[in-house]
Write a structure and sequence with these properties.
The structure holds two protein chains of two kinds. Chain A is mainly α. Chain A contains 20 helices and no strands. Classes of the chains: A mainly alpha, B mainly beta.
Amino acid sequence: MTPILAALLAVAAGALPLRTDEAGTFQAQGQQGTSNAPAQRSGDEAHLSRGVQLMQDQLFEAAANEFEQALALSPQDPRAHLQYAVCLLSLGRNEEARVQFEQVRKLAGESRYVTYYLGRLDFLSNDYASAIRRLGSVAEDPPFPDTAFHLGVAYISSGNVDEGTKWLERAAKVLPRDYRVHYRLARAYTSAGREQDGAREYGLYSQLRDEHKNTEKDVRACTTALRTELLDTARETCHRIYDPNDPDKLTLLGQLFGDAGAFAEALEPLRRAVQLDPNSFEAWHNLGVTCFRMNRYQEARSPLERAVALRPEYYGSVVLLGATLYMLGDDDAALPVLERAHRLNPADTQTEAILEKLRAGRKKE
Amino acid sequence: MLRGMTRREFLGLLAAGSAGVRVARAQQSGGMASRGVRPQARGKPSGLPFHARFTDVAARAGLRAPVIYGPPDRMDYILESMGCGVAFLDYDNDGWLDIFLLSGTRREGPVEGATNRLYKNNRDGTFTDVTAKAGLVRQGWACGVTVGDYNNDGFEDLFITAWPQNVLYRNNGDGTFTDVTRAAGLLHPGNRWGTGCTWVDYDRDGRLDLFVSNYLVFEFDKIPAAGKDPSCNFKGVPVNCGPRGLVAERPILYHNNEDGTFTDVTDRTGIGTVPPAFGLTAVAADLDGNGWQDIYVACDSTPSLLFRNRGDGTFVEQGLLSGLAVNEDGNEQAGMGIAIGDFDTDGRLDALKTHFAEDTVALYRNTGHLVFEDVTLRSGLGVETRYVGWGNGIVDLDNDGLPDLFWVTGSTFPEVERKHPEFPHKTPRVLFRNLGGGKFEELVDLAGPAIAEAHCSRGVAFGDFDNDGDLDILIMNVNEPPSLLRNDVNGTGHWLKVKLIGTRSNTSAIGAVVTAIYGGRRQAQAVLASSGYLSCGDRRLHFGLGAAEMADLEIAWPSGAREQIKAVHADQLVTVKEGAGIVGRERFGA
């Protein structure tokens, strides 16, 4: 997810979602460090998956409940601790989040992701020195694109405007479309008496903010048009959102078309979105869904594999990848994926039924 | 391929997994800005005692008439949801605060007893409704009130914003008022929704001019009612539409011609150059300390406006440059009420702005030269995001010398509560005590029963109605009688009240800034004609002094004159006349 998506889509409390490599790493480490029985693992995974889904839907209280249940079954699973920690951060339960992040570190070792989050927590508790130390230690190899932004803000809050400005300038290069960065930078320049630089940044801020607001309007208009007009007419309205250089808008556009069942229209913007932002889970997943719904299973496979790599605990991506592999006739590949989907959501009796048939079919062969 | 199951069946079985990921979009509804902000974690309570205790004495004081504002159980139109302000004023100059309550009505037609009301203070804790006698009976959609002596005759006049027409009442000095709107040239063509209003002597000619903010273009029959437009929803519940999606308005500035008339100077003063905005509370104060009144307007879901007074009869909008337009991340908020005060006692006027639920208030620290810093989160205010905030104050409620923060709350969408109990219609008052060092702590039970009581409130005014040396609170509650929170301070903190009378300046001294120096602190306060949400408080400035038994005073008069008064003893009201020093002293209860 790019920073603009974070801003545009208002991810609660600024807590960014996890990244593929992070989750993957913790998964591997967690598997090494745990000795749960298979049945217990199954329950653990299901709660974890439900929690991830609930987080995606921004139902943080319910998600926290799922993570707590996952941890009750597998208290040594760093993935659950990590997801729980991010969830608690989103809920503003900062001290509890800190405990969970520390637990992740204990179970899985040092991680720049955990360091980043602990730095953000330090900032929220007004411990600017610690926030600077932590965020500064990961700033050269940042776990998230907004690391420089938060480091800059921490410096400025600590009174070191010069150093803060330096990091905000770096953040503006990494996140050129994030109006927050330009606003903070404008404030920093102004407070340092750099009026011209400040005016330039205020200008950029205003321009980006206006664009953001216009996008909101366009999204409302597109939603209404897709609901009330013929696709040909709605397409024209929705095309106002199209920006070939903005992966967030492209992802939004694809989602809006997809929601309306206009999968053919969703395809191109989503393809372009994943090119521009290959780390966007939403874009990959929705591209996979779109191809799948268009019965283009071969084309759905790769995006869904990317989505699953980015969010291994997200049941929707996993089950759809399993289905895609199955539809492609790759039963060997489909079986473990569907088994994993079933572990993530044991309540889905339909997947279970398919699995039984798939296993039975293999026995016959 | 698996036998015994068709492709269609398989796809059907897996339909649940084939849903796209829904990414949450900011502001899907057309309503007010609610940023989905989660509260910060609460720290451990300080355990310190709080010496103010509030009791709602409205009923026993005789304030029993409900303030009608729209239907009792729903708010179909945004006009019905915004409520109105209240005022403490001394209309008869007897030294005791009287009460003026605005009122709305109902769309269906006149409601018996629904009128703006003037209550005269009986000096025994009770009030008498003198509305009819004073000539102030009026039913309509009143919104804001500003109190000031615009004709410098020594009596406080009233200006009221309302949809569809504002009203100016001249105080005749004999207990009655006269509607002089037409004679003053303040009738405007067509219907407008005036909201915030403040008297302000922007050109320092000694006469009070008038600033009016307008909210949006409103007509009952041109705005979709709740549930009629699918985009007007909150948390999935159909609610009244706006302000987003409706047509915003510009503010107006009227110049006082000294002959009882006013001239619209919006364009020539630069006030009219700003893009339309959803303007609500307007406050005039000299925020940069240059001797000229600036005007700060809380805007709802558009960036708030700060008009810097250039000192040459014109203004330039500097909301963004000052830091007062948006929050620290550059996001506009649903600005409702504005409080001006000096929470960190550094001698500069700071600002507190209230917003919608799922957002924090914004506390702006004045760092000088009209630059403000958003210190909301670091001051500890981020713990409270549950309620829609309205009238507010930066006021020392316990006389410890450190101004506290107070605001009232209440939903604009009563329908939502039925589906989402976590968004109740009636909600409690919010009080953050000042711990010093720029930190605040929310108090729920420590300040008396009236704080936790839930109402759907809007306007709030602060003043000492019982002249006992502390600040009481008057609150407008939608479709309920008002609340009058009597403050009973039981600590040892001292206090000092300062009443100013202008001579070269306007007689109300609106726009003056008094800085009290006591116990190593410098606390600035401004004489305001409007504050909180569309309301107006006691013109007598109240300084809690803590342990200090005297204070030095520095007075910056609206005329530009400056005056110093040394070693003023605590626990009294002093009246200072411009150019003449202290002309009156009163020890309450003596």
